[in-house]
Amino acid sequence: MPKRLLLAALLTLAGAAQAQQRTAFAPGQPWPDNKDTHLNAHGAGVLYDKGRYYLFGEHKVAGPKGNSAQVGVHCYSSKDLYNWQDEGIAFAVAPEGSGSEVEKGCVLERPKVVFNKQTGQYVMWFHLELKGKGYAAARTAVAVASKPTGPYRYVRSYRPGAGQWPLGFKDEWKQPAPGEKDLKWWTPEWRAAVAQGSFIRRDFVPGQMARDMTIFVDDDGKAYNIHSSEENLTLHVAELTADYQGFTGRWNTIAPAGHNEAPAICKRGGKYYLITSGCTGWAPNAARSFVASSIWGPWQQLDNPATGPDADSTYHSQSTYLLPVAGKKDAFIFMADRWTPKNPIEGGYIWLPLTFEGDQPRLRWADRWTLSAFDQPRSKVVATP
Ligand code: DGJ
């Protein structure tokens, strides 16, 4: 090729690469990766490791099969949170017909990865539903890797809390109360029965249900799996073993009969903040928020953190993770999904700065914003013009 043409081609390429550099978040807009393909990481979580962020999420495919796991967990990495490099499939589903719990066609949702300092391993947890069984299995599963990007090796799945009562569970609650099975759902009597363990007793032997979930590592290195349990009626928080691959048997309930899913948690000023959604399948609803001084509770329910237009649908999205921004004190990004169940691969992402008014977490819509939002007085986080 003549030198002149080569130079022109190189300049065009450089220009295209430059055009792809993103300098702001644009919630709800297509979010191209370094290959100019919309990020495919739904129900995601983020790991920050050695100066790099790693985004892990459900790899969705087009069409009706796309809500079941056809591929696995997709990983991307980034230095600045705006520009993401495709790192490929970190955890791959097992081949169809293999009989594995994680075979192609299972449901694999909300993967979250944490690093275990004691073992030097990266530990991935996700919500697992067995192939062909709808959402009945309600299990939480773990996989490990020696590098953040994987490949992750499947370890096993759990129904947590088998044979273990939650903290503070009274002796008199260990036997069913007469007639509790016949109580009409959502009545005050039924709510009281749920709070006193009607579903916990039912699942005491096989272990408690575990659907929508997140993982939280506390300042002391202890990790917790927080998941929707009891037919999605009650959240459970369960302590993980020192290697983060199993459960210690210490667990508790959060908001019994509160019907919460999509838990996302952060810690600020010694307090724990939880954002959740209600339970309306793939359709968005109003977020909820909670605060506690101990991960074991008591958890106090606060308001819907979202404000302004579309607050009642959380801006048409559902929480998935509260991302601590590295190097900025108490700066968290609210990460949420805009699900498109008819064509799941199109699903969008809503990332917004999380602010606090006293203890109340707050969200305000911004078409476009940058991390410098966290450098302003926090109550005044606004959109970048
Ligand atoms: C809502 C949950 O938050 C999602 O992760 C997914 O499980 C859908 N329900 C399935 O309907």
In short:
With 385 residues, the protein is mainly beta.
Describe this structure in words.
There is one protein chain. The chain has 385 residues and is mainly β. The chain has a domain at 32-158: Tachylectin-2, Chain A, CATH 2.115.10.20. It is 8% helix and 36% strand. The chain is built from three helices and 20 strands. It has helices at 3-20, 188-195, 198-202, and strands spanning 42-49, 52-58, 72-78, 85-92, 107-116, 121-129, 139-145, 153-158, 213-217, 223-229, 234-240, 247-254, 261-268, 271-277, 288-292, 300-301, 318-324, 332-338, 348-357, 360-363. The strands form five sheets. The protein has a four-stranded antiparallel beta sheet with strand order 1-2-3-4, with no helix packed on it. A four-stranded antiparallel beta sheet has the order 5-6-7-8, with no helix packed on it. It has a four-stranded antiparallel beta sheet with strand order 9-10-11-12, with no helix packed on it. Strand 3 (72-78) and strand 4 form a beta hairpin. The longest helix is centred in the N-terminal third of the chain and has 18 residues, at 3-20. It is globular and about 65 Å long. The N and C termini lie far apart (44 Å). Residues 14-19 have low confidence and may be disordered. Bound molecules: (2R,3S,4R,5S)-2-(hydroxymethyl)piperidine-3,4,5-triol. (2R,3S,4R,5S)-2-(hydroxymethyl)piperidine-3,4,5-triol (DGJ) binds at residues 43, 109-110, 212, 261-262, 281-282, 318. InterPro entries: Glyco_hydro_43, Glyco_hydro_beta-prop_sf. One of its GO terms (molecular function) is hydrolase activity. Belongs to the glycosyl hydrolase 43 family.
